[in-house]
Amino acid sequence: MNIWIAIALTAVGCYLAKLLGLLVPAGVLERPLAQRLAALLPVALLAALTAQQTFGDGQHLTLDARGAGLAAAALALVLRAPFLVVVGSAVVVTAGVRALGQAPW
Amino acid sequence: MAEQTTLPEGVGEAVGIPHGSATVLGAKPDSAVVRDALGVGIAVGLSGFAFGVTSAGSGLSLLQTCALSLAVFTGASQFALVGALAAGGNPYTAAAGAFFLGVRNSFYGLRLSQLLALPRALRPFAAQWVIDETTAVTLPQPTRRAARIGFAVTGLTLYVLWNLTTLLGALGAEALGDTDAWGLDAASPAVFLALLAPMLKSTTERITAAIAVLLALGLLPVLPAGVPVLLSALAAPAVLFLSGRRKGTSRDTAAAEENR
């Protein structure tokens, strides 16, 4: 039941957040500061998410195979690889490093 | 309007669209827009598989996992909710964290609404598709027609595939066993990085990203899940404020030089 409460709250909250942006009058965007802020906020949020999902483990920070996977993704991005290759290389390298870590040598 | 096009420039490259295809001004063939949209929709839709696997692995039922993808439909929030529930968080904290992550879609909506100019009656239906990927495809389009096609095709492709692959992932979780051994937990941060990379064009963006990373990691051990990411968003107004002050100062200095 608790899980369903969480799902319902998240669904309603996230939907309203999406809708709000579409309903706010266009005039808000005509101020240059608002435009710059709207452009810069996703940069901050995506950077924070990337870092947390790479180095976060619950409430702890950790450096594990995901770090190697993300480095591979970064390299793929520098080489202008397609999106799927970027994500794929992160997954494959992470899995590879974990497999090596459990190898018997 | 120049600012309007700065955010997504280069996103096309990140998702494998040939360089410059999204920057041609004026008429752009509908088929080219559809190709852009399908490229992103298919690539990211497949990462729904990773979500399905993660969610089922976290102890959510098949129905709960699919309900999340159908009703929430914004990947970061879904991953955050499932992670918080798996860690034993109460439903309200878990939902708050997921909601905080979803707030960024409000800002995407702000930018999209001007570009798409949707009739009011249509907005409640379009809202569900206002996410990272549809924004990334829609904003660089040169015309309103192209923007609308890009938004609709990306949204539809992504919605159908994200939900299908969520279902498959949840079904396949048992077969896979330990999903971390397959490296699937690295898919989500890699998606974020691929979305972020093309945005890091100038020093302002890079400094903002660096501060956000420091805030997110620094606050992670001390605040409830989801809150550090929201607070890291403060990096954006902080950098804007500081760069505005610096510009003001240099302008004053220039004026002083002239007076001399």
Automatic annotation (TrEMBL), chain A:
Membrane-spanning ranges: 6-25, 37-55, 67-100
Q: Which domain of life is it from?
A: Bacteria
Keyword Transmembrane helix assigned: yes
Keyword field: Membrane, Transmembrane, Transmembrane helix
Q: Under what name is this protein listed?
A: Branched-chain amino acid transporter AzlD
Species in which this protein is naturally found: Streptomyces atratus
